[in-house]
Design goal:
The structure is a homodimer. The N and C termini of chain A lie far apart (about 60 Å). The first copy, chain A, is an all-alpha fold and about 190 residues long.
DNA sequence: CTACAATCTTAACACTGATAAGATTACAGC
DNA sequence: GCTGTAATCTTATCAGTGTTAAGATTGTAG
């Protein structure tokens, strides 16, 4: 190894960063701790000083991506001037996030997130939908599940080439979401 | 090995069957060719006489599950007396299939199916939706994507304990699907 | 400056997918 | 029946993986 670098100094952060890059390019399936250690110029056992095991490492990567995702949703809500268009805006944001990082979708929603009820982006979406739907609270539970399912399913669809035209993503998602009507508000 | 069993006689089929069982119980992530070979009482290299590699094996398993899925959808359509309720019935069937085999969802839709446009169950669903929507062909494209997204997203939701009450799955899915209205038909 | 904790390396283990070389068996054609 | 060929299987063997143990190096608090 290089002289004077026995202590990397920033290994944990670098591994997470390299992990994000790798997942974004090649997906999490072929990611290995050894490759990341190699890329960081460190021995194959070094990562285990910072992470209990591979799963714990991937959990931290997941949390980082979730943070980015949540930030995008928060920003989208903040920039929404017409509250009647809130769900549309959030839906587009939701789909757009995974359209730009298709492999993130697979990484997150393949067993890693196994409790939507407490998953922050879903909680955020749920809360925004409740607020948006306050006129008709009776069946809001089902409406929210319907809305979330549609947006979430759309996100998966978009991660696959050819089904949705990603060059005009906002228009496409808008057209799809507008093609169904939600209660009196839709 | 046991005497007189040098030629297994039915190894390919048995491996696929054991693969289905394994994925159903533990998921595809931890499935290994060696474990299946062991379970079939055969050496670790034997499977490679029948499958080019692990991926080709999983593809055959995928095709089998897809066949079962398609069969369920076909059966559901056949048993639909009131055509106006067709999409509801197919949606319930779609969700129910993965509710009964949650790990199949993860196996199928985690990179293994990467072209919905030609994926038989989706083509089936699309065709049924088109027929159902023939009154308003103008925006049928978007309506179909909206419907499929919702049902598909719902299926994922159901594979996770707690979000949807699987004891009353049909009612729940019905309530969710009915909470949005599709054009004049919905 | 010293003890301790954090960090890293080296070496090893079991498990994985995969291939090559050779053994065994089924079977078609004679 | 016999024989040759193809299919099937076993026995090594390889590189790659996650992970741990033991020990070396270094930052840092006292």
């Amino acid at each position: 190894m290089k002289n004077g670098t026995y202590h990397h100094g920033n290994l944990k952060a670098e591994l997470i960063e390299k992990g994000l890059e790798y997942i974004d390019r090649y997906g999490a399936e072929s990611l290995s701790m050894r490759k990341l250690a190699d890329a960081a110029g460190v021995s194959c056992a070094a990562p285990y000083a910072h992470f209990k095991n591979k799963d714990a490492f991937l959990d931290e990567v997941q949390e980082y991506i979730t943070g980015q995702f949540l930030e995008a949703l928060t920003e989208s809500e903040k920039n929404c001037s017409d509250r009647s268009q809130l769900m549309l805006g959030l839906g587009i944001c939701y789909v757009k996030f995974f359209s730009e990082n298709p492999l993130y979708y697979r990484f997150l929603f393949n067993g890693r997130i196994n409790d939507f009820k407490t998953y922050p982006p879903f909680v955020f979406f749920e809360k925004a939908a409740e607020e948006w739907l306050d006129a008709k609270p009776a069946d809001s539970h089902y409406v929210i599940l319907a809305l979330w399912s549609m947006v979430h399913g759309l996100a998966q669809m978009v991660t696959i080439r050819g089904v949705v035209d990603t060059d005009h993503l906002e228009d496409e998602v808008g057209s799809i979401m507008r093609s169904v009507r939600i209660g009196e508000n839709g």
